[in-house]
Amino acid sequence: MSQIEDARDDDAAVDDIVPVPYSSEEIERIAEALVFASAEPVSEAFLAERLPRGEDIQAVMQRLAGIYASRGVNLVKVADRWAFRTAADLSFVIRKDDSDVKKLSRAALEVLAIIAYHQPVTRAEIEDIRGVQTSRGTLDVLMEAGWVRFRGRRRSPGRPVTLGTTGDFLDHFGLEELRDLPGLEELKGAGLLSGRIPSGFSVPVPGGEDELSDEEDPITQLDLEELGLLPPTGDGDG
């Protein structure tokens, strides 16, 4: 009887070690379900934790993206995350109430463009590029939209706060990364730049996504309090 029990134990141990085989179609279905069920774009790390160990996540997602490329809903990559989005050529059929659409002022669009292309950038640098002062209300609108964030503190006198764009900015404008922002020729072709462009004019190439540059320090709890984003943590009277 002990030999039979030992054999059963060996079989159970084998079952614990050998992974359950999944076909490529099944793996794609699992990944598809994970992205579809999430209210936010899904990271590849999240998918790797839930798919069979050693699976090439990028290859799986690229195959899925190819399947959805010609459909009404596309699987798109935003930064390092994946999400389903309405096909760009069908966006006109998705109607929203006018109250849900927040139109940005020209000043806000200018500031957003400067932050997108020049980040990390300080408020003083934005004003220097625009040639006019930037109101706090303009930045508030961009932050409330979730498109602009405080990045860090510049390692310079006064330690000014640096600004950058967010993942929501990329998602809203259908960009995988900042380097997908239109360049000079694309802006000309879209009629967004006049034909009388000064000689030597160039469109800057945006930097990294989330990583702080060598000239930035991370924002601390005290910094957030100074910026009015958190209540002070000092001792109260009571």
How would you portray this structure in words?
This protein is 41% helix and 13% strand. It is built from ten helices and seven strands. It has helices at residues 2-17, 24-37, 44-50, 57-68, 106-118, 123-130, 136-144, 167-172, 184-189, 221-226; strands spanning 42-43, 73-78, 81-86, 121-122, 148-154, 161-165, 216-218. Strands 4-6-5-7 form a four-stranded antiparallel β-sheet. The chain has a three-stranded antiparallel β-sheet with strand order 1-3-2. Strand 5 (148-154) and strand 6 form a beta hairpin. The longest helix is centred in the first third of the chain and has 16 residues, at 2-17. The chain is globular. The relative contact order is 0.09.
Task: Provide a brief overview of the structure.
With 238 residues, the chain is α+β, with helices and mostly antiparallel strands. The protein is built from 10 helices and 7 strands.
Largest sheet properties: 4 strands, antiparallel
Which percent range fits the helix content? 40-55%
Q: What's the rounded overall pLDDT mean?
A: 77
Element-level helix/strand string: HHEHHEEHEHHEEHHEH
From the N-terminal CA to the C-terminal CA, the straight-line distance is 73 Å
Uncertain segments: 12-18, 97-101
What is the beta-strand fraction? 5-15%
- The tally of helices reads 10
Spatial strand order of the main sheet? 4-6-5-7
Overall 3D form? globular
Rg is 25 Å
- Class by SSE composition: alpha+beta
Count all strands and give the number. 7
